[in-house]
What we know:
The structure holds 3 protein chains of 3 kinds. By secondary structure, chain A is α/β, with parallel strands linked by helices. Chain A has helices at residues 42-49, 72-77, 95-103, 111-116, 120-136, 152-165, 182-197, 209-215, 233-237, 240-247, and strands spanning 4-13, 16-26, 31-35, 57-62, 65-66, 80-82, 170-174, 201-206, 218-223, 226-231. In chain A, a hairpin with a 2-residue loop joins β1 (4-13) and β2 (16-26). The model of chain A has no long low-confidence stretch (mean pLDDT 87). By secondary structure, chain C is mainly alpha-helical. Chain C is globular and about 55 Å long.
Amino acid sequence: MSLLEISGVTKAFGGLLAVREVSMSVEEGSIVAVIGPNGAGKTSLFNVVTGFDWPTSGTVRFDGEDIGGLEPWQVARRGMVRTFQTPVGFPALTVWENLMVAGTKPKDESLLAALIGSWKTAEKAVKGRARQLLEDLGLWDSRQSIISDLPPGDVKLTDFARQLMFEPRMLLLDEPASGVDPSAIGRLADLIRRVRDQGVTVLVIDHNIGFVLDIADVVHVMALGEVIASGPPEEIVHNENVIEIYLGRPR
Amino acid sequence: MQNIIFGLVSGSILALAAVGFSMIRQTEGFINIAHGQMLTVGAFLGFIFVNSLGLNVFVAGLVVMIAVGLLGVVLALIVFEPVSANGALAQLFTSIGLAYVMYGLIRVVFGAKVQFYPNLFGRRFDFTNFNVTVGELVIVGLAGASTVGLHLFLTRTRLGTWIRATASNPELARLRGIPVRRVSISVWFVASALAGLAGVMLGVIGNVNSELGWTQILMILAAAVLGGLGSIYGVLAAGLLLGLVMDLSAMIIPSTWRLVVAFVVLVLVLVFRPRGLFAKAERKEAA
Amino acid sequence: MTGVLLFFVGVLTLAGIYAILAMTLNLEAGWAGMWDLGLVGFVAVGAYTYTILTQTKFDDVIIHPQLPIWVGMLGAAAAAAAFASVIGLPTLRVRGEYFLITTLAFAEVVRQVAVNTQTITRGTIGFSELSRPLEGTFPGTGNRIVLLVIVWIGVVLVYLLLRRIAHSPYGRLLRGFRDNDPVARSLGKATNHHRLRTYILAGALYGLTAPMYLWYLRSVTPHLFAPDITFVTWTALVIGGIASKRGPIIGAVVLLVLTESVSLIQGSANLAVILASMRFVVLGLLLILIMRFRPNGLTDERSAFATVQSSDSL
């Protein structure tokens, strides 16, 4: 059974069908990519899957459970975490604090916990993990910088680190390569592969075809709300429909 | 039936005040609490023109409109424009500050006593179960005429079209070369002038006192939100509706609960339609 | 005791009360991002609850159990908290300016209810001759100093409470989702629940401040609960610096001293009336000037949290 099972999901905005009967499954431990031109419905699909929007019809199953009507925070607590296209994070907090927020369990960040101080024990363990993650990503030196002071590259990296702090089972990346220096894209790809090797399933949407074909095990191509092709990268590259979508009608 | 008349009258006055408020909200981008004080200024100025200077009330009304309109422009230029860079919340709090300054000065200059316009429109028409005074007819008529005038201005003149464009999309308007400053000044003038007129009407119908600004701004806010902060015509309708609801409710519950009724209606509407009754579909908030 | 000294005792007492109000507003608006324009409603609920529960002088109302002061205080906090939880649900569903206006509307509804339910609240006449704590032990002017001390003990306690919250994961989370709610939700944070809880806590604190205000004034009428208290609190917060920790206290003291000192100017009775109105002008001018020249106030969030942030990760 796949970790994420999307069946016949449709999302309509008024008369406009942003997502049309889309079905796909994501196997645990794989990296799956969804590509397509602007307006293909990728972000709408993401929003539905992560609970930021609800499906007009169809089901979304995560680990066997129907999560269609859940709130985003409920979806997240089941192990599915997403990033956002503009990685602003928590701008008034430092890099360190951004990670700490992600790593703190609900019972330790309640008002009651604040009043009686019961959060202090668990905090130590969280600190350890945050430190490890920051060092791995080379952010340790900027840990006390406030997000709004950081250069955009570091903001993106912090974004990534913060969502990883949550220890999700599945990570959904919304355009991770956009705005990233071409020279740094290789490193980003390595990062994603490393995350997968640690047991996190990844679903990526992006424009950058080269990047996607490099990291993905399975690629789904969307256009005008529908999935028009699915398969391993080698197949997709030679798929005529896909070529037509990206390069215009063949002569 | 009598209550319907009252409702139409108070609703018309509220609509005039609220539509100007809404125009400012749309083109300038912030909630102007000081708008209520413009009504008070209008009421007092009109009172002085009619009582002490013996002016005909219609002439006085016109003079008040121009005077308050100009006051609005001046205040916008010296108080609001310099703060616009600091954001809408800063402008909101500036408007609260301005409201207090105006309130204090009004009390100093005009005193805290309640004043009354002379009984100008005493003629009454009596019907079987209700009566209408000429004053009430004049107010509803004037309000209606002003609405028509505003509509024509907004749709038939170039400036009016610019205003509507800026109101629905300020950034795009600027990019398209619409003279933003001229639009801004015009909006301030028109909105304040309408507020001044509403103030005079309030004085004619009821009384003139320094607290007017605060009681009115609450109802103006309710009408503006009810109509949908992004819709000028919705606000006009909402003002009228609110006036009617408030005065009609007086048939079932004691009239001292008027304001509560207005707010209960507001809250109920917001719960079911968080963007107001007539709001146009607004762009989604960015994450 | 000279008149001027006594005057300042009064000013500082009032400043202390506003300091608590401003710190509470800082919690809900500065840290949690809820721009509440209706806080006076909670104060009103607390004030009337306290009065109804404890007053002993009037029996023309249907509820007058004449309970001790501390019961009244708890009742005030509880009633305000209950009110917050009831109106919190619909109010917190709306965002931005609609939230501002809804909170303002609810506060005005409370005031109108106070005006119109004579059998419980004595309508526009209200209650007078309210007693102060420790009146018997410290009669006369000594009593005013006792009140000053009580209020400022309250200021310190609330400050410590809020500082504890600020340095906890809860406080950290508030300042996080205040600026970016979607990211917080993507991390499994039930942000609406946290907002509601903060709103209720704030309501309780506002309610708890009400009895102090009544001890200062010795009377309660609906007129007291016009939006003025809300706006003065906001001005105090803005002057001191939103989202800082000591800002609200500094702002309250600065604001109250400046506005109340206007009354020190001696003159004719006419002048006194003018001066009463000039206090509003001073308040308004301060707000306008701060918004124009120092919108971040006298202190700000960054400097307030800098030490915590730098020591946190060591």
